Amino acid sequence: MTLTAPETSTRAAPAVPGRSRSTLTRRLVPYGYLSPTVLLIVVLMVVPIVMVIGYSFRDNVIVQENSVFAGFANYTKVLTDPSFLSALKNTAIFISVSTAAHLVLGLAFAMMLNSPLLGGVTKAIFRIVYILPWLFTIAVIAVIWRLLLDPAGVVNHVLQTLGLIEQGVNWFSDPSMALWAVSFVNIWAGYPFFMISLLAALQGIPGDLYEAAAVDGTNWFQRFVHVTLPQLRPVIISMAVLDLIWTSHQFALIWMTTGGGPLNSTEMLSTFTYKQAFSEYEFATASAAAVIVLLLTMVLAFFYVRSQRER
Questions:
Q1: What is the fold, at CATH topology level, of the domain defined by 75-310?
Q2: Where are the alpha helices (DSSP H) in the chain?
């Protein structure tokens, strides 16, 4: 008699409904956590941007019930407006001078605070003094410098005492000086951010690199050029691009010091767009200007993202 082995079933065990539901729940949990943020981004960013882009192609928006499709007429009007071209030029000068000065001052002060020649107490005092401008709000900064740069203010008094000027200068009301005065105030308010970031980067450079360079007989300037700057290059590029983006959006400081005047000498893209919308009530033109500013900002953002990928 032949004995045969019992047949074994090769069919897979049926899926447990409860286990499938728990697996699906675990997969959906991260999306649940992200949903409030995504909802806020859509409501506060995506929807307004889409609406502004739509307004830029129409005329008589908001102020009248029935708007009219205008195509690229609003863009043509903005790009041929002398006030917009003046604002574009002023913005380019403002952000270029501010970013360059932020970088130079921030790096100089960061290297001073990182120097072994200063004691701990001295460094602490200088850190407090140098970071003070960053602690003030834009409103406070605007009020302080309007008082300091007043024709009867402290700055003019000091310059007259030194014999550098004969009479008080109204820095914010002189068309030839207003842009440089506003740029100076923005530089004073913004350099601490560069200083703190570059100081942190300097403290992260290995000391072995400087020791090896010193053994090779290099002086301090050669070590700065061939050791310090290459190590700081990724941070400097990222900071510079970010500062260009932030400075191009500066509105409060300009509005609270000069309001874009005198004679449009400090008119920026931000103040031009604001005036078009809330002074002239040309919301379609303001929307076109806002879209142009958005495109320019996206170009800067592209370079920032690219610099981050290279790091």
A1: MetI-like fold (1.10.3720)
A2: 17-41, 47-56, 73-79, 82-113, 120-135, 138-148, 154-161, 178-203, 207-215, 220-223, 229-248, 252-257, 269-278, 283-310
